[in-house]
Amino acid sequence: MGYRVVVASDFAGFDYKEAIKKDLEADPRVDEVIDAGVLASDDKKEYPHVGVNAARKIAAGEADRGIFVCGTGMGMAMSANKVKGVRASTAHDSFSVERLVLSNDAQVLCLGQRVIGLELARRLAREFLGYTFDPSSHSKANVDILCAYED
């Protein structure tokens, strides 16, 4: 069974979200792409609403992973992390994307359209889906500690 991936952006990340969405729809590892908005580049909905709504889909089990885009990636990451059970971070290089999953069992990659080029963003999104957290790794203890702070 493939991934169910939720994509989300504010107006500042709309173009990259649309490009990544097309890539995901063509990726054989992906069974479903859920677009949580915004649906137009002139939609000025505030990123916290979009990010929280998209992250809630992961927390509810409706999606396995998320790729969220705003101007820097930081706002979307902060928004997604407000949802219990969701771990999100901005990552703008391959090593950070790897560690996002392998060390932190994060479900959400956040990217900044105003920070990196489109081809790098597309590459990082592809790489993000190539990693799987190993619950027997030494990193599991740290993930458990993070989760305990949510309670």
Description:
Helices cover 42% and strands 18% of the residues. The chain has 6 helices and 5 strands, in the order E-H-E-H-E-H-E-H-E-H-H. Strand 1 (3-9), helix 1 (14-26) and strand 2 form a beta-alpha-beta unit. The mean pLDDT is 96.
Layout of helices and strands, plus pairs?
Elements: E1 3-9, H1 14-26, E2 30-35, H2 47-59, E3 65-70, H3 74-80, E4 88-90, H4 94-102, E5 108-112, H5 118-128, H6 140-149
Parallel strand pairs: 1-2, 1-3, 3-5, 4-5
Helix pairs in contact: 1-5, 2-3
Question: Can you give keywords for this protein?
Answer:
151 residues; single chain; 5-stranded parallel beta sheet
SSE-based structural type? alpha/beta
- Most strands sheet: 5 strands, parallel
State the helix count.
6
Order of helices and strands: EHEHEHEHEHH
Q: How would the global form be characterised?
A: globular
What is the end-to-end distance? Answer: 31 Å
Strand order within the widest sheet?
2-1-3-5-4
Question: How would you concisely characterize the structure shown here?
Answer:
This protein has 151 residues and is an alpha/beta fold.
